Every structure is written in C-alpha cells, then in structure tokens.
Amino acid sequence: VQMSGNVTSPNCGVEMRLNATAMKFDVYYGKAIHYTLMVTAASFMQVLLLVLQIEYTTTRNSANKVSLITIGQQAIMDSYLCLVHLTTGMVVEALFNAFATAAFFEFMIFSIFEMRYLLIIWKARRPQGFQEGWDNMRRELSMLYSRFYGCLLAGIVVIYQMQKYPAVLLFIAFSFWIPQIYHSARYDHRRPLLKRYIFGMSATRLLIPLYALACPQNFFHSEPSYTLAIALVSWVSIQVLVLLLQHYRGPRCFVPSHFLPPRYDYYRRVPSLPAAQEQDCAICMMPVG
C-alpha cells in the first residue's frame, strides 16, 4: 500500500510532500511460504532426476560421455541458491524455517548428488589416478575439489563485477547445456543424457527466474519483464532442441560434413584377390574373402 500527499501553507511559505509505504506482512509471508514450497518441490524433483541420470551412467564409458562443465555449472548454481536462501532466512527471522528447508535441499543437491556425479565423471576420465595408491587418489580428489571451489569463488567475483548487467549473468548461468552439446559433438558421444533428465532439469531450473520475471505478484516486489522471460525460455528451449537432435540424429548432425574428420568405414567391401594372393584377417587369422 502506497500513500502520497502534499501539505502547503501559503502564509508560512511551507510546502511538504509526504510519501508512505505500508506492507501487509501476512500477505508477504504467505507469498514467501508459497515460493519456498515451490523451490523445495523443484529441488526434490531434481534429486530424483539426478539419481536416474547417475544410474544411467554407471559404467565408465557412459560416464565419460557426460560433460564435466555442464554438471559443475549446475552444481555452482545450486550452491549459490543455497547461500541466497539461507541468508534470506537469517535476515527475515519469521521465515527462517521455510527458507532453511529450501536451502537444505539445495545444499543436499550440490554437496551430495552433484559432487558425487562430478567425482564419477572425473574418475571415468582419469582412471589411473584412482588405481595407483592413496596418495594419487588424494591428489585427484584435491584437484577436483580445488577446481570446483575455485570456480565457485571466481563466480562470486564475476557476479559482483557484473551486477549492473543481471540479464547477461542470467543468460550465462542458463547456458549450462552448451558444454554438453560441444562435448558430444567433439567426441561423437551418443545419448549421454536421459531425455527426462534434460526436460526435467530445464523446467525445474527455470521456475525461479520465471517466478521473478513473469509473476506480477511475486514476493521479491520486482517488476515483471515478460520480454526477458520469453527470451530466457527460448534460449533454454534452443539448447534442449539441439540436445534432442543429437539424441535422435547423431551428435554431429548440425556440423557441415566438410568440417568433420574422416571416419573409418568398418563395412567397406574387400576386393576379391586371386587364390595365390589371399590375405588373412589380422584379428581372427582367417582368410578374407
């Protein structure tokens, strides 16, 4: 509720302008509770999707197909959300329980499931480091964790330096499928991610920015920006569409053929030779023909 008024006294030459703002805290707290319920439900859904994706890539070959940067970027996003929700709960004491619950789910996602998934991918790419004793294993773990938390701190610095450009930061944060697209196209990896994981993660991660950008009665009291909301959804949808194209038509379907390296044809026809010049297969040691 906003009120404004003017007090004028021509005889005394005094003019006063009054602006007052009142807030209905019961309505405000109700919106905050609904927001935390939405975040908690989305976090629970992300946990289920991560469990399904981890089970889908249990082997070394399948885990090697997943981009380390994609999972790491999502883990960093969840760590920032955990920090923001926990700080909000500490500032607004009446909402501490609700925001602490949301922060706990975010903390559980990035510290348990996503860090475990990063470790699985890291181990799949560097298997020898985990097979040469405890010293090398500790070295590999320290390298992984130092890079992750280094990127976490570097992201805080970038956010502080670019706080005047929130739209740019938002589009950078929601470009987490780009590394997976590049990784699949570069190494010709087929179907590294479950379709339900792609759709579910994209939808649940869009809930918070869409709530802030497209909901006119959000508890942030921010002005809705429908243009930015549509642009963000379109950007994530384009990434999902490319992932689906790679899923059905191959990881390099959008790359022109003259840019692709030559591939060996395992089904090429072997020319027939005279009996005196017959060749033997190098694998089965049987005559080729």
Per DSSP E runs of 2 or more residues, the count of β-strands stands at 2
Rounded to the nearest angstrom, the distance between the terminal CA atoms is 88 Å
Separate helix tally: 9
Strand order of the largest sheet: 1-2
Strand content: 5-15%
Q: What's the overall geometry?
A: elongated
Percent range for helical residues? 55-70%
- Average pLDDT over all residues: 87
Q: How much is the radius of gyration in Å?
A: 27 Å
Q: Structural class given helices, strands, pairing?
A: mainly alpha
The biggest sheet, with number of strands, parallel, antiparallel or mixed sense and barrel status, is: 2 strands, antiparallel
Oligomeric nature of the chains: single chain
Helix and strand pattern: EEHHHHHHHHH
Low-confidence stretches: none
Features:
289 residues, mainly alpha, two-stranded antiparallel ribbon, 2 strands, 63% helix
